[in-house]
Design a protein that fits this description.
With 453 residues, the chain is mainly alpha-helical. 67% of the residues lie in helices and 5% in strands. The protein is built from 20 helices and three strands. The chain has a three-stranded antiparallel sheet, covered by helices on one side. Strand 1 and strand 2 form a beta hairpin. The radius of gyration is 23 Å and the shape is globular.
């Protein structure tokens, strides 16, 4: 349907629309390069020349400057929340393409964007389902670490309780890091008290797995991705936010251990010692749990589950059968699911990141990261050997996150020119179809523009 063109909107109205697009992307967990690309595509739809447009992304603030008819216009936009909502990212990313294809009027685009903004507070899944998703993800991690069925059940209950504690604290507008610490404390205490029922042969595993739904895996992956794309300010802010979340979670665990006797759960091995079919099932269920938390559309849950099963099983096979180190094995697993998703992308009718992010989250070494911080907090009680082991855990965890980020971005790196050529060719045709004067100036230019900060 072709919309009838309305009166030309003011430059301020256009800039506001571009900023609102970027704000939605940032607040819902998109990496900076994707945010910039979508903002530039929106600007192209509005007939704005990217050569006269400057963007500055600082994670909490977006600044847009436009030079037009001898005048310079500048607007700012603050980003207050930093969650993960892949459904919203999917909708915003598709809106600018739909606007170009169907020749939306400015009023139509503004209305559609407003509907997406309103839907942010109305997730696809109810709060109860999301809490069950957190429990499902953590109990699946418990199984991946070698826990038995009873341990998985205790982990499930502890994680659900922890999720509700965090949700209630967030509704009360308590500091986000305090919410994370309190949720970790309550979940860990429940997991510890489950030891009163000696029903499990792996009683300490719930202590390890019950707080992993709090690990900011998407933020850490996006931080590395921003570094790789030279968005250093945004990358450092994301990394700091993710690190503080891990610190808060660790502090909550330490508070719980101060109440009860100190267990030896920090020395439990989390690496697979043998291969089981249940590992693939557990990885799939973990991906489904995180996909629910991340608000992934229902039609993509099965795809994310299959991708995670492939990634984890391949990693475990390389670890157990070929004794390949964890970092290299994780890279291969993440790269395999990313490449497979890229090959089958047209069948999904969704951007690749919506599928790969939930699929690779079970590869995140959250346990290694909080073990490092746990050891640093209790450094006066550690022997030199225990301190070195803690540092080894932390360094290995950081390298694994880097490996995951590189694996996820591999298709973009290898097939970069082909992907961008196809996208810019499609964009150029749509701009010509809409008879925009800036079409020639913007031909094959958005990729180059998106590298500027």
């Amino acid at each position: 349907m072709i919309e009838k063109q309305m009166d030309e909107p003011s430059i301020y109205a256009k800039m506001d629309l571009v900023l609102r697009t970027g704000k939605l992307m940032v607040e819902c967990g998109a990496d900076t390069k994707r945010c910039v690309r979508d903002m530039l595509r929106t600007a192209a739809y509005l007939g704005m020349d990217w050569q006269k447009l400057q963007l500055h992304m600082a994670y909490t603030t977006i600044m847009l400057n436009v030079y037009e008819q001898g005048k310079s216009y500048t607007m700012f936009c603050k980003c207050y929340r930093h969650g993960v909502d892949l459904k919203t990212n999917l909708q915003v990313s598709g809106l600018s393409w739909q606007a170009l294809k169907n020749k939306y009027s400015f009023a139509r685009y503004d209305k559609e964007l407003g509907l997406i903004e309103e839907a942010v507070n109305k997730p696809l899944y109810s709060r109860c389902i999301m809490s069950l998703g957190a429990g499902l993800a953590c109990s699946s991690f418990c199984r991946l670490f070698g826990g038995d069925f009873i341990a998985c059940c205790f982990t499930f209950l502890a994680s659900v309780i922890g999720w509700w504690v965090r949700f209630i604290c967030m509704r009360l507008e308590i500091n986000v890091y305090a919410c994370t610490a309190l949720a970790a404390t309550i979940a860990t205490l429940f997991a510890f008290f489950s030891l009163s029922w000696p029903l499990s042969g792996t009683p300490w595993h719930p202590m390890v797995a019950c707080t992993l739904f709090l690990i900011p895996g998407v933020h850490l992956i996006n931080a590395v991705d921003d570094f790789l794309n030279n968005y250093l300010l945004s990358g450092m802010a994301r990394m700091l936010h993710g690190s503080l979340s891990v610190v808060a979670m660790t502090f909550g665990i330490v508070c719980a251990l101060a109440i009860c006797k100190k267990p030896e759960f920090t020395e439990l091995t989390i690496m697979p010692q043998s291969l089981y079919f249940s590992q693939g099932v557990a990885a799939a269920l973990a991906a489904v749990g995180f996909a629910i938390i991340f608000n992934v559309p229902k039609r993509l849950l099965v795809i994310a589950a299959l991708g995670s099963s492939i990634a984890v099983c391949l990693r475990n096979f390389l670890l157990v059968s070929w004794q390949i180190p964890l970092t290299e094995a994780t890279f291969v697993g993440a790269a395999a699911v990313s490449i497979l998703g890229f090959i089958l992308l047209k069948s999904f009718h969704a951007p690749l990141f919506v599928i790969t992010i939930p699929a690779v989250i079970p590869l995140i070494p959250g346990v290694l990261l909080y073990r490092l911080l746990y050891d640093l907090i209790l450094i006066n009680q550690l022997s030199p050997r225990e301190l070195l082991l803690g540092l080894q855990n932390g360094i290995e965890g950081i390298l694994v996150i880097l490996a995951i980020s590189l694996g996820v971005t591999l298709p973009d790196v290898v097939a970069h020119q082909f992907i961008e050529h196809h996208k810019q060719k499609q964009l150029y045709k749509l701009l010509l179809k809409n008879n925009l004067d800036s079409s020639l100036a913007q031909k094959f230019a958005l990729d180059r523009a998106s590298k500027r900060e």
